[in-house]
Amino acid sequence: MTIGFFDSGIGGLSVLAESFRRLPAQNYLYMADTLHVPYGTKSEEDVKAFVLESIEAMMGEGIDALVVACNTATSIAVEELRTLYSIPVVGMEPAVKPAVEMNRATGKRVLVFATPLTLQLPKYYALVSRVDDRGIVDSLPMPELVRYCEDLQFDKRIMEDYFRAKLSPFDLDDYGIVVLGCTHYPFYTDTLRGMLPPHIRIVDGNAGTVKRLAALLHRFGIAGDAKGSGNVRFMCSGGDPAYIDKMRTALELIRGNAIETEDVL
Q1: Peptide bond into 38 cis (omega under 30)
Q2: Rounded to whole angstroms, how far apart are CA atoms 181 and 59?
Q3: pTM over 0.85
Q4: CATH assignment at residue 107
Q5: Number of domains present in the structure of the chain
Q6: Same domain, yes or no: 78 and 117
Q7: What amino acid positions are annotated as catalytic residues?
Q8: Is residue 12 scored above 60 in pLDDT?
Q9: Residue 191 belongs to what domain range?
Q10: Considering only CA atoms, which of 219, 192, 180, 193 is closest in space to residue 90?
Q11: One domain for residues 20 and 63
């Protein structure tokens, strides 16, 4: 069987890397919508159209389950995808609930990094309203960070300067957790750990997403069919071989080691 992972760009590779750790015997197909990345600064209507077109292309490759490895795309399109397709579909949301629960005893606040579009969507407001009964969650749009990641800009000096500028209005002593609410952002976890006060924990939704994926595979009766070789095929909406190489490089960076891959344009 093949599990499909979808994102606008390379961000979802951070979720795929977690899936390799938890479900190493599966085969994977990863698609990036390179014609339209980034999603976080576009309209809701446009993003939904982009997502549906991309997933239709993935279905043509014969995927057996789908992870929408993008918080913005999940908020906009995951319910429609579940009505369109009979395969398991897993979405993502910023890890606000676990962050609030983890911080409950500390008296500290929670700071959520996310794309502008994610922060504007009703689903995000509903999530925060549901779990944040003490009003401790603050949100910070990071519109430039996706583009930095897509450009493989990981120079610590440059990125530390960027984060310091974005965080300058905040008293970090007030915060106990930073939530990485976009799948591109975990690429900067090490940089953030090196510059944030040591008492601040950094969380994302990747592990929880893969746990839900594993549970759904079991529920659909396909969890035991883990007879793949743990390889990944790449495809992208732009059909650009150079971007395929970029995805391979990014996955190796976030996994910390090389993997066997095949290309699908």
Answers
A1: yes
A2: 27
A3: yes
A4: 3.40.50.1860
A5: 2
A6: no
A7: 70, 182
A8: yes
A9: 96-204
A10: 219
A11: yes
Average pLDDT along the chain: 92
Q: Do both 15 and 142 map to the same domain?
A: no
DSSP the chain: -EEEEEESSSTTHHHHHHHHHH-TTSEEEEEE-TTT---TTS-HHHHHHHHHHHHHHHHTTT-SEEEE--HHHHHHHHHHHHHH-SS-EE----SHHHHHHHHTTTT-EEEEEE-HHHHHSHHHHHHHHHH-TT--EEEEE-HHHHHHHHTT---HHHHHHHHHHHHTTS-GGGEEEEEE-STTGGGGHHHHHHHS-TT-EEEESHHHHHHHHHHHHHHTT-TT---S-S-EEEEETT--HHHHHHHHHHHHHHHTS---EEE--
Closest CA to 7 of 228, 262, 237, 192: 237
What average pLDDT does range 90-100 have in this prediction? Answer: 95
Residue found under tokens 């057996």: 64
